[in-house]
Amino acid sequence: MREVYIVGIGITSFGRLEYPLVEIASYPSVVALQDAGLDTVDHLFVANMGGGRINHQTALSSAVLDHLSLWPAGSETIENGPASGSSAVKLGFQAIASGMCETVLVAGAERMSEVNQLDATDFVATLTHPMAEQIYGITLPALAGMFTRLYMEKYGVTRRHLAMVAVKNHGNAMDNFFAHVHTRVTLEGILDDRDAETNNPVIADPLHFFDMCPVSDGGAAVVLASKEVAKKLGKPMIRIAGVGQATDTHAVHERPDPTELTAVRLAAKRAFEMAKIEPKDVNVAELHDAFTILEIAESEEVGFFKKGEGHLALERGETQLTGKIPINPSGGLKAKGHPVGATGVAQVHEIVLQLRGQAEKRQVKDPKIGFTCNFGGFGNNVVCTVIKKEE
Amino acid sequence: MREVYIVGIGITSFGRLEYPLVEIASYPSVVALQDAGLDTVDHLFVANMGGGRINHQTALSSAVLDHLSLWPAGSETIENGPASGSSAVKLGFQAIASGMCETVLVAGAERMSEVNQLDATDFVATLTHPMAEQIYGITLPALAGMFTRLYMEKYGVTRRHLAMVAVKNHGNAMDNFFAHVHTRVTLEGILDDRDAETNNPVIADPLHFFDMCPVSDGGAAVVLASKEVAKKLGKPMIRIAGVGQATDTHAVHERPDPTELTAVRLAAKRAFEMAKIEPKDVNVAELHDAFTILEIAESEEVGFFKKGEGHLALERGETQLTGKIPINPSGGLKAKGHPVGATGVAQVHEIVLQLRGQAEKRQVKDPKIGFTCNFGGFGNNVVCTVIKKEE
After folding, report:
1. Which among A59, A70, A74 has CB closest to B81?
2. CATH number, domain at A41?
3. The model's pTM
4. CA distance A122 to chain B (A)
């Protein structure tokens, strides 16, 4: 299999963006192409989930490709729910690994603010099981609430642990210019229930407002290249060393034990095996903390900590920037934001920044190997990536 | 590059289907898996354009994968407008060619009848240029009408030639059980304008009702495999010998000459070069006749006939089942139907049937090489495929 390198990266600010969806995908693409030193590519993948549903825009990849004047390169729009971004990076990897392309641009973008909060929640709920979940009105926050309750009962996770995730990730986001939320929060503030209805209301018990990622617009892009092209471009040699994907039952209630995120475990295992490394070799990770509990659960399933002990490692500070395995230096979905289709690409963007040593105040010390976990559905389609800096 | 074979095919009836979108994608998948003799695959791609917009269904590929109990295989939904199907087949090809997978299921599906005709037209129009076309109310039939008028003026194509495409393809569809339309039409009937308002009204001048494909529901699937697996399965060795893709300006009016379908020409050229054959070597082709004019124009751009002479070859009967290069033996989009995401997969399905010699009454005599052209947007993103039977 041919080796594939990441030679360019770009990102928009996450938050509320007053630009059309096509622009949100195009801007980080231009930045990534400039970063790579390329003015064209062989192919474009655009990761997006809501164009058709909320932006009256299909064939998004063709529109972006045209906006970037990349004809006659081919393109496709890739959708895998909240894991669309990592799926698109994976397909870019395969396009080059197969020998069909030398260079591929992968952009991810979402424009959620075109609809109100309720419609945004309905839009995201379209990824649930159509016959077993959707028709009963389930939403993603509801699923996460039930998951959290089970996790608390089984492993002794408390609201305090959940708040620790928020405090850490909001703190990291303070040093990320592109993050959606720049609000430093404290454990005391989050856990103070005196004005909870105003400051931190219950959204889906036991999850409060500060356990949820925001609804964001945003875009991110990476340029991939074959080894031959990457060497010529003279950028740091950062390689996609492993890609793993796995699925689980679409309906959460069909899982023998709903607290087990089997697809996360298997996707990570496959990525590590392909990269020929172990979880302990990872120096920096971006996990999919759409809800605070997910960072804890994923940190266990991917193998950083034993099952049921993620919250203890968190308590010990092991996932801080200076910890054993820093998680979500970017601020994560929780504070950087979660423009659905962009998220997986943005995770890779952060890892490349970290491996290049360009993450400024949130730089992890001298990382060699990075890892991303992008969580589709409620854990029904997960993509993990291992990214390695070559000396 | 590893070689990739088509080892299983399946299709639904096209037309109005009273099943959910997930079922429409799943049924032909089961048929294709049975045909291949497989009960699982390494990966699933689902081609679909309207799930989010018209069926309240995103993450379609995860839902289909779950319905087929294919966990923990990964999956993505692929969208490239009306060329989504061929794009998904191409990505299946790359997944195997890269060495990441041994077997891939590619399903295409659309459920258009969930919305009325007007909303279906609006849905398809979401693929036009958002700033330069969509906001002015352009639709695909309108673009096709203007294209047809230019073609008539430039090359002497008449309404009679357009009608010949319809008569041929409706005739072929009479022998295709799965076709949407089983209505034999005649030149005299189509060109008789006495009761045109009732029988064959103008839709987008000069295009009449019988120049348009119907709005269809439907699904199709193919199973791809590496050479090693294909040999074990013992099916006829039918190989994807070439895949070509190319894009053009998104807004049609930006093309120097709007009668030139540059992306079709280039996509075909790339596919032929990869397969190391020439257009004259093709024995049977499925072209994208969403409008009658497109079959004529594409037959020229892909290289079967000289530019401006497709209608003359049609007149001479060269594209009939018994002609020099039979086009659309399945009935084409015109009469087989056009469930958008399924179309490209269904084109490949027909070519495989023909190469296997299983097309019954519409069987072309002993074909060795087949070709498909799947036309995204109004020619802004085109995918062509060369499929070869190995002895």
Report:
1. A59
2. 3.40.47.10
3. 0.98
4. 9
